[in-house]
Design a protein that fits this description.
eight-stranded mixed beta sheet, 10 strands
Length: about 290
């Protein structure tokens, strides 16, 4: 591809079918529908340079946005999911686990550890949406709980990035129990006055939205992120009414007082640093329930 081809996006409705078009070099933005050079999106923190649409992002790449280089020390990497209920739908749960392992990515839908933002040491965790939709099963719930316990033990501020479809149905009640388990650990963190920031990304739904996502001392969100318990289609079909425009998107939640601020990726590091700098000097008082 010549340099001029990079500057001039192809004007075609179906890029992959166009003769001479190399699939993967260009991406069609779902918001502005412009054809954008993939490399430009990557350089712009996976944000469309034309309309600022935030594409979903790899969990580890997301951590690199605000953590200092080489500062992330991952913990509890040796635990992996099992199939306690011998669950089967269209496929055996144990086979789903094996297929995820073969992809060579993460071993679970949540990773956590120690990190640093400039001169501030923190405890940080993030859900991994590529692993079974970021669903929270027993292992993810255990790791989330350990995140809060580590922050409590070392008295470090805590950040959790959410990107999840909710509780993992293949583990049934064992999955739902993780909501109470992790929330109990978070309650101890708040009792000690150690700050916890929840950063909500697209999508944050189900049991994750109903637990750690909405319990931050400060709740931040990415632009236009889908956030809610049940999905919009489920709600609309249940109540048989038309939903407001932008329902369950981060702008809608900000207008209705459910989150504190919308933060673009380009401003994330500076925003987190400012909040945590103030928080470490003046410990947060627990919010009234």
């Amino acid at each position: 591809m010549s340099w001029i081809d990079k500057l001039r996006p192809p004007k075609i409705s179906s890029p992959a079918k166009k003769e001479g078009f190399q699939e993967g070099l260009w991406t069609k933005c779902p918001q502005c529908t412009e054809i954008v050079f993939q490399e430009d999106i990557v350089k712009n923190l996976s944000v469309c340079p034309k309309c600022q649409h935030h594409f979903r992002m790899n969990a580890r790449d997301r951590l690199k946005i605000f953590l200092e280089p080489e500062s992330f020390e991952e913990l509890s990497m040796d635990i992996s999911p099992t199939d306690p209920l011998e669950f089967r739908d269209q496929k055996k749960y144990r086979d789903r686990i094996k297929s995820m392992d073969k992809l060579g990515g993460e071993k679970e839908s949540y990773i956590f550890g120690r990190g640093r933002i400039r001169d501030l040491d923190i405890v940080v965790g993030t859900f991994v949406f590529k692993y079974m939709g970021g669903s929270m099963g027993s292992v993810a719930g255990e790791k989330l709980t350990r995140t809060f316990e580590l922050a409590l033990h070392e008295e470090k501020p805590c950040i959790v990035i959410t990107s999840s479809g909710g509780a993992r149905m293949q583990e049934g009640i064992l999955s739902l129990m993780q909501m109470a388990k992790s929330t109990a650990a978070l309650a101890q963190l708040r009792k000690k006055g150690i700050p916890y920031i929840a950063f909500l990304t697209d999508p944050t739904t189900g049991g994750v939205a109903a637990s750690c996502a909405m319990l931050g001392d400060v709740i931040l969100a990415e632009p236009n992120a889908l956030i809610g318990f049940a999905g919009p289609r489920v709600i609309q079909q249940t109540i048989k009414e038309e939903l407001p425009e932008g329902f369950q998107r981060s702008d809608f939640l900000l207008d209705h007082g459910m989150i504190d601020r919308i933060v673009p990726r380009s401003e994330l590091k500076e925003t987190l640093y400012r909040i945590l700098s103030m928080a470490t000097d003046h410990r947060f008082s627990p919010r009234s329930s």
